[in-house]
Design a protein that fits this description.
CATH superfamily of chain A: lambda repressor-like DNA-binding domains
Oligomer: homodimer
Shape of chain A: globular
Number of helices of chain A: 5
Structural class of chain A: mainly alpha
Number of domains of chain A: 1
CATH class of chain A: Mainly Alpha
CATH architecture of chain A: Orthogonal Bundle
Helix content of chain A: 55-70%
Strand content of chain A: under 5%
Order of helices and strands of chain A: HHHHH
Number of strands of chain A: 0
Largest interface: A-B, 24 and 23 residues
DNA sequence: TCCATATGTGACTCATAGTCCGTTGACTTA
DNA sequence: TAAGTCAACGGACTATGAGTCACATATGGA
């Protein structure tokens, strides 16, 4: 599985756990709603600045964000 | 401190620990030599695909890469 | 049925990610 | 004095990510 796909899955997982809509999270992260949609669906090769914004909006540390089975076994 | 700066520091730290030159790591990660320099110096807003390539070239898991004090306290 | 909320998609512009050519300076070894 | 390795930088270039929009779809409630 592609890393950008894994990233999207993780974002969606954490967003749903917080009971937020894509739009609410996008607002908090200061990105466009449709951009957030494509990130969650693994369509975007997100750059690290936006990764930081999104993780911060999820109220989780970088460490905790990446510490999950989703990121086991990167194909690349 | 900026996330892309923290990322660069972490890459450099792990690269030196492995005794690799920037060029050797760049070759392994399949990115440009000059690009690796600017990444380590926090000048690049690296996209997640290249983050994956670089971390893989460092022979470390995503989890372990981000589990370090360097990533404590993101300003964003 | 109508309306609001939530999500997804294709296309677009523009800034920049990333490559490839080279140079320079610091350091090391011969 | 070379001659080599390494890190950093720069200019020019191409590929692609950032950011936005119109529009579509699905759902649930009044």
């Amino acid at each position: 599985m592609d890393l950008q796909v894994q990233f999207g899955k993780r974002v969606k997982e954490l967003r749903l756990a917080k009971g937020l809509s894509q739009e609410a999270l996008a607002l908090k992260a200061e990105v466009d709603r449709t951009y957030m949609t494509s990130v969650e669906n693994g369509k975007r090769n997100v750059a690290i600045q936006n990764i930081g914004k999104i993780i911060a909006a999820l109220d989780i540390s970088i460490q905790d964000f990446f510490t999950t089975d989703i990121f086991e076994g990167i194909d690349e």
